[in-house]
# Entry
Amino acid sequence: MSSTVTAPDIATAVGQAFSDLDAVEGVYLCGKGPVFRLFTVINDDSEDVYDRIYEREKRIKHSVAEKLRFSVIARHGRSIGDIVGGCAAIWQRAPQHGLCPNVTSI
# Structure
């Protein structure tokens, strides 16, 4: 019996893999199969971060399907739209709560 890959399955695996890795800002999914492209967006380059992401991508690949292609992209201040275009966000880091950076407290 063959298993099918669905975006919710991938999103769950991605969320579990990257939720505790602060350097990951979001993961974006492109394609409808048979090959899914996953773009992991980080803000800055760090060899240690790349290594940790690659380890987690291996776990995702084994827990979901063999037909995933991964790319890690350092954002360097660029907008997400410029990087991943029309890909769907399947996991994003929740924004930090607090005052807007332009607000002055009284």
About this structure: Residues 99-106 have pLDDT under 50 and may be disordered. Strands lie at 24-30, 36-42, 68-74, 88-92.
